[in-house]
Amino acid sequence: MERLVELAKNPDRVVVLTGAGISAESGIPTFRGKDGLWNRYNPTELATFEAFERDPLLVWQWYLWRMHLIANASPNPGHYALARMERLYPSFLLVTQNVDGLHREAGSKNIVELHGNIFEGKCRYCGKHYSEREFAELFPFADKSFLRSVTEQELKERVFPELRRNLPVCKRCGELVGPGVVWFGEELPPAALESALRASSAAELFFSVGTSAVVQPAASLPLVAKRSGAILVEVNPEETPLSARCDFVFRESAASFLPRFVE
Ligand code: BJW
Ligand code: ZN
To answer: Which of this chain's residues are annotated to bind NAD(+) (predicted)?
Structure first.
């Protein structure tokens, strides 16, 4: 840690890539690994357009269940440390694969959400995007305040049975609207990906925090940075395919490492 802190004093351009691991300590399950199941379901099977076409009710129940969990969660010391880190460097970009919005809630400003935001809406048929406010109007069950006002049991017993008749319908094309996230096989928001690539290739110091580093194209960002000469740091209790390429590896949780680093 001392050697990293010494090296990290001078860089002007820093990029941090985060994944589900940073929100694990806020009580939000990760996707892969031993705790990587969301309410019995394998995320890689439900986070697709094919699953939505086949069974939109099941996919929406799964997303509402997750939205309920997220709406009732709070940022943890790892999120807050990254918000502080933003103020330490002249140029700092936080690139997240997370859809939970907890970085913004913790006070981070310069954020790129590569995989979208779970409280927004996206029509897979005509492409119309709904902001969080617009989507809560179209689909009141997705409203954060509503989700905070019900228990998980009420969600399952009261909301789920009503869902079939109340799924969100697109104002533009009349098809069903899905959550504002990027599913497998879908293109990432082009402007977000472009900013992330640009910042990564200019970074002097790059942190990969709480990600299994297997989902593309996000997993390529640390390698882009490394190729351009950045110092690469991984923070993850488990080994990943990226570990061997890193200059520093901290096998610990984000909420324990990051606050010590920005101290
Ligand atoms: C802790 C911790 C603690 C635990 N502290 N750490 C090239 C090669 C091969 C495949 C592909 C390729 N290019 C594209 C693909 C296909 C696919 C892909 O990558 N598949 C791989 C799985 C093989 N990629 C795509 O389909 C992407 N689209 C695309 O490329 O489109 C191309 C295109 C172009 C033009 C037109 C059309 C198409 C899209 C990927 C979208 C990913 N979506 C998801 C779901 C989001 C919605 C939702 O939330 O429901 O995003 S999948 C899921 O994985 C989610 C995550 O953001 C993403 C990454 O997961 P993450 O964050 O790394 O979490 P985990 O669980 O994997 O890891 C957690 C880690 O934390 C672990 O390592 C733990 O050890 C650690 N940890 N506690 C610190 N306290
Ligand atoms: Zn539409």
So the answer is: 19-38, 97-100, 210-212, 236-238, 254
Cα 84 to Cα 107, 164, 202, 248, distances in angstroms? 8, 44, 21, 21
From the CA of 216, the nearest ligand is 1
Query: Residue 193 phi/psi, 5° resolution?
Result: -65, -40
Homologous superfamily of 1-28+75-115+188-263: TPP-binding domain (3.40.50.1220)
Q: Cβ(222) to ligand 1 under 6 A?
A: no
Give the model confidence (pLDDT) of 208-247 as tens digits.
999 999 999 999 999 999 999 999 999 999 999 999 999 9
Q: Hey, how many other C-beta atoms are within 10 angstroms of the C-beta on 248? A: 16
What ipTM did this prediction achieve? 0.96
Query: What residues pack around ion ligand 2 (CB closer than 5 A)?
Result: 123, 125-126, 128, 170, 172-173
